[in-house]
């Protein structure tokens, strides 16, 4: 089979790789129906994370089950499945608490920009749809495997509740999905921070009620203006830089909550500042597995359409162009089809 | 009147001071019935915070109302009152959200180790009891004004729930009150981290089910041993040092919560570590005013007895000895009576 391999920052190649095989009884192998490039894939692509040796890329996927190990009984060959970027056995203490992304047997997916994918912990990771979905639903089901699940987690971690005010920091695919999540969870007012016209437009279509283009202290002041001077109930931090975290923490009111889902890079939070803010803070890799059944239902029923974050679709063998387009901000998110 | 003044680290004096007066229509002046020395008073006493010029000390108090300003209608002269160390108007947006310790008109109390005290924002800060309490209840009512309210907040910020497991980091007065709070809020298992026999004993009497004497990695390993390998649902951080914060964050399970109420000194939290822990974190000065009616009821009904944290009672004019005894760890907490 063939798949994407990163050799160095800026250098992603589509290469012949060994076909994946069942190596443990809890494995499955799926044939990729769609995969994509994640904002977090850009960290190594941009040299912000080291690339010590060439390695495959990709952690988002939907596909058709090809083969399962002997202990995989919930899904079977031929089924269309959605999984999480973090695999989980769904039976350990952390899974039972609903924190499957901290499964004691977790393995992060990292080989999904390929024709076929081995899924570890397949028994606790994959969720099959009743029937094969129509092609127009595939992008949204793919989004559920990471960005929509992550936006959902951001909104839950930020404790978005009916009638509350939410701020979304970051207008990438996760931030835009965070707008969907805040809307679904009942926020009355959703303030999206974005400076890009096309993303502002999509945020508004997803349910944002206000757009703030300013950043830093000006952005914080604008949020305060819109929230009675005290800040928002909930803030979704969907970037992962020191600037975005500062923006988020200062946009929340005392007693409010920040859910942070952008993998933090060189971020640290000063204890006394967090203390006097009285803001609650929770982040992490989203426990997407917990949300999969619900989010798949919302997609299949047409209630949400997070697949709209894909504004570029390419054949899988043009994966390198997908990275380039996202790096150059010509695309929010690139979907890849084998 | 007379009151405590700190002149330099280690130098607290009991001096003649100007009598407090009503300076705003929302003020009250109370005659002190009891006050005390707080763990946080030891920061400047030990030189960990600067003492730029001599200033009065003390922020915990119960007393009898002497005089009220024209806008103070809820309490009247002659009543016994309990208040918070953070004053609040109880009408601003933050107060209405239940975060009175971030009141837009907040003033922190700082002159309470004295015969008489001016209370700013008295209308939204003081809660009167129906009648004058008997003397044996005074220490517990005094505790409610700060350490019991703060332990309560730590337990709520750590989301202690019926049946949960809670760890309390810190065996000072706040930590011990945190044990009471965890018990009242229904925790099944309460693990107190303490190396002092007398404090261990009091923690057990307050409801702790386990004591851990180890600290650092050993202490964390012991918590994991007692919590199925994953950590506790809730951790109350009641110290405020880098070591105690690390202890707390590593003692919580993925998806668990840390409530931190020790004012952080040189503490910073690394973003990626917090991210992958998936631990929720909330701290701050406790919104004691929100809890006052409930906690006063629990004291008056005999349900809780946080006044037991006072293991030294002195005449107010011996306030310097109170500081010394706490600094030398001869006392957990010193109560002072004019």
Automatic annotation (TrEMBL), chains A, B:
Keyword annotations of the record: Metal-binding, Oxidoreductase, Zinc
InterPro entries: ADH-like_C, ADH-like_N, ADH_Zn_CS, ER, GroES-like_sf, NAD(P)-bd_dom_sf
Top-rank taxon, per record: Bacteria
PROSITE patterns, alphabetized: ADH_ZINC (PS00059)
Cofactor(s) listed: Zn(2+)
CDD domains per record: FDH_like_ADH3 (cd08287)
Residue span(s) of domain Enoyl reductase (ER): 7-336
Similarity field: Belongs to the zinc-containing alcohol dehydrogenase family.
UniProt cross-references to PANTHER family, sorted A to Z: DEHYDROGENASE, ZINC-CONTAINING, PUTATIVE (AFU_ORTHOLOGUE AFUA_2G02810)-RELATED, ZINC-TYPE ALCOHOL DEHYDROGENASE-LIKE
Official protein name in the record: Zinc-dependent alcohol dehydrogenase family protein
Protein source organism: Streptomyces galilaeus
